[in-house]
Specification:
This protein is mainly beta and 577 residues long. It is built from 2 helices and 51 strands. Keywords: Lyase.
Length: 577
């Protein structure tokens, strides 16, 4: 058995303003233990802390038979967990997914107040035990202090119409960080089930991390709904990590649709940077699937899971209006699939609301994601492939951008590795910006783009940002790509601008209100493609002065080639239309 540790009010020491760092993604809450009830959290969750304080070790847990139900769990409650109607106290409780527990504790029978008048924390402390499920029948349960349990082999908390009502910031006893802390990095739980819990934080100055789970083997979290804006300024509703590389977790239908308020506007101002994160998994080294989750606008990222170890699978779900990024993932082979991301609201403190951000990983995959941005700003890219992303694939993703500010679509950072964009479409109708921007780079890692469609009437600003595709990397490849940039209110937009060398474009179609195809690199090849301006007085191709060996083969080019002084131009079997 794991060493069960569950000190009474013993929490970590440090400063609460370091929950996460947006650059490094270091996570809070796994520092050393000093045994003080009023200690605060350290923000560099390295997971190497050692118990140096007065935590109580559960060396002699209360004796309970494997076939005993504590405090007489109700037959209805047991049946809800998968037992037949004839189940009795002599049977082993079995959850419907097959996970069995020695004991089931009906929390009302154990003394928890289901009317929300008295705190349930003392009851939680009294019934804590390994191999035990805590069953919350329908009702409201007031909780004003953290419940901590670590080192267990198997533990469950299940609600059947249950609503937790946290105390507000001012009334919460002890460190104002969490309702449930289940496992820590240096003493994780083995298997955890947590499901069927609503959390009512609609009262003013209320909001707290509902669950922080650090688990070695198996994590199951389902059907947790947080109602009300998180306006206390403390940590956001969920934090999850698998500590074993072979550990597997699922977080399904975890919902916090009302988001959170910036810490500077809360009672915790000055003690935390930005404010709560929706869901955090930055210390995970195993595999966690986030399925059909929903997050509203949080001030410091929505789903934030960028550890380079482990893997993350975001399967479906809805994510809206978070600052930083709405879905931010790293890891090995991590996937974002079938999700919906919408940015339609920008608060005064939101300075970057990226839809999907990829970093710290290899073979990261975005597949069949729908992104809508109607509240635009230049740093709110639809998909960001960051410098620390070593390889990625963006597939069949739909992006729609409209608004009165500059906004970019897919942006590949200068030091990002191999990037493959396959299928999908970008409708870009912002006041300016690049629907697809491959930033200037000296890296040799290829960007491969296939079967992508770019359209929409975008604008142009004083800073430019007028190209449908802006490519500043050498050795890129474009195949069966379509770009149509007619220009918003008659402004001049270009189809594609090449600033890198040795790029090949095959079977592409470029149309624009200004120049469809601009070559400002060397050794670039346009083949079997169409380039035609909406302006009949402009050429379909423009070659900048000083470039060397541009090649144009078997193309249809509207109104000819505007050669401003290129060297060694190669043309073969082109049709001028």
């Amino acid at each position: 058995m794991r060493n069960a540790v569950h000190g009474d009010g013993c929490d970590e020491t440090g400063t609460s303003n370091a929950d996460t760092d947006s650059t490094t993604g270091l996570s809070a809450g796994n520092g050393d233990v000093n045994g003080t009830r009023n200690g605060t959290e350290i923000g560099i969750g390295a997971g190497t802390g050692t118990g140096t304080g007065t935590e109580i070790q559960n060396k002699n847990p209360p004796t309970r038979s494997r076939r005993t139900f504590l405090q007489g769990a109700s037959i209805a409650g047991i049946a809800a967990l998968g037992l037949g109607a004839g189940a009795t106290g002599s049977a082993t409780a079995v959850h419907e997914n097959g996970e069995d527990f020695d004991n089931v504790v009906n929390m009302v029978d154990a003394g928890a107040d289901p009317t929300g008048q008295e705190s349930i924390t003392p009851v939680l402390e009294s019934v804590r035990a390994d191999n035990t499920m805590l069953l919350f029948p329908e009702g409201e349960y007031y909780i004003d202090e953290q419940f901590r349990f670590t080192g267990f082999e198997k533990f469950g908390i299940v609600g059947d119409g249950a609503t937790l009502v946290p105390a507000n910031y001012h009334d919460f006893d002890g460190p104002q960080f969490r309702l449930f802390r289940l496992g820590v990095s240096y003493n994780p739980g083995g298997n955890l089930l947590f499901e069927g819990i609503d959390v009512d934080q609609t009262a003013p100055d209320t909001g707290i991390r509902v669950i922080e789970a650090t688990i070695a083997d198996q994590l199951e979290v389902r059907d947790v709904t947080v109602r009300g804006e998180h306006d206390s300024g403390t940590w956001g509703p969920g934090m999850f990590a698998m500590t074993d590389p072979n550990g597997e977790g699922i977080v399904e239908r975890f919902r916090a649709p009302d988001g959170g308020m910036h810490a500077d506007r809360t009672p915790n101002a000055g003690n935390i940077w930005r404010g709560p994160i929706g869901i955090e998994a930055n210390t995970n080294v195993g595999h966690i699937e986030f399925k059909d989750c929903e997050l509203g606008g949080f001030p410091d990222n929505g789903l934030y899971a960028i550890n380079e170890e482990g893997s993350i699978y975001v399967n479906g779900g809805e994510f809206r209006n978070s600052n930083g990024a709405n879905v931010r993932v790293g890891g090995q082979g991590s996937v974002v699939r079938g999700a919906t991301v919408e940015i339609d609201r920008t608060r005064s403190y939101d300075n970057s609301q990226r839809a999907v951000r990829l970093e710290n990983g290899d073979e990261l995959h975005v597949d069949n994601v729908d992104i809508s941005i109607t509240s635009t700003q230049p740093t709110s890219h639809a998909v960001s492939v960051m410098n620390t992303c070593h390889s990625s694939r963006i597939e069949n993703t739909s992006i729609e951008i409209s608004g009165d500010e500059v906004n970019h679509g897919i942006v590949v950072s200068p030091d990002a590795g191999y990037t493959h964009v396959y299928g999908g479409n970008i409708v870009h109708e912002a006041a300016g910006g690049y629907p697809f921007w491959i930033r200037d780079s000296d890296k040799d890692d290829q960007v491969l783009v296939e079967l992508l469609d770019i359209s929409g009437e975008a604008g142009v600003t004083g800073a430019g940002f007028r190209d449908g595709i802006r490519c500043g990397r050498n050795g890129c490849r474009f195949s069966n790509v379509s770009v149509d940039q007619p220009g918003r209110n008659g402004v001049d937009r270009n189809g594609i601008y090449l600033a890198g060398d040795d790029t090949t474009l095959y079977r592409c179609t470029f149309r624009a209100s200004q120049y469809p195809y601009i070559d400002n690199g060397s050794g670039n090849l346009l083949r079997n493609s169409t380039a035609e301006s909406h302006n009949s007085n402009l050429e379909g191709v423009r070659l900048y002065p000083g470039i060397d060996s541009p090649a144009l083969r078997v193309n249809e080019i509207g109104n000819g080639i505007d050669d401003l002084g290129a060297s060694n131009v190669v043309t073969w079997r082109n049709t001028i239309v």
